[in-house]
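=== RUN LOG ===
request id: a7f3
mode: sequence -> structure
chains: 1
length: 103
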Amino acid sequence: MAAKLKKGDSVIVIAGRDKGKEGTIQSVDPKAGKAVVEGINMAIRHTRQSQTSQGGRLPKALPIDLSNLAYKDANGKPSRVGFKLEDGKKVRFAKTTGDVIDA
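=== RESULT ===
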C-alpha cells in the first residue's frame, strides 16, 4: 500500500498530548505505522559524555502514530490524503482542497 504521509510533509497532530501542534516529518516507519515529527512528542534522554558529544539531558523527538497525524493543506487546515490517477501517474491529493501534493 502506498504511503499517505511521507518524509518532508507538513503535518498537524490531531490527537494526543501534542494535539494542535504542527511540524515536518523527519522519518517514517511504515512497518510500525509511526513517524518522527520535528518538535512533536519530545522526551528527555540522558546521554553519557564522550569525546565527540557533550552529554547530559538532551531533548529527543520520539515516534508518534500515523493515525494521530493529518496532512496540512494549502489553507493550513488538517486534511486527509487520497490517491488519484493524473496523466497515467498515481498522485497524492489533499481531500479538503483537491490540490495535488506531489506533482
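=== NOTES ===
The chain has a mean pLDDT of 93.
Strands lie at 10-13, 22-29, 34-37, 42-47, 56-61, 64-65, 69-72, 78-79, 81-86, 89-94.
=== END ===
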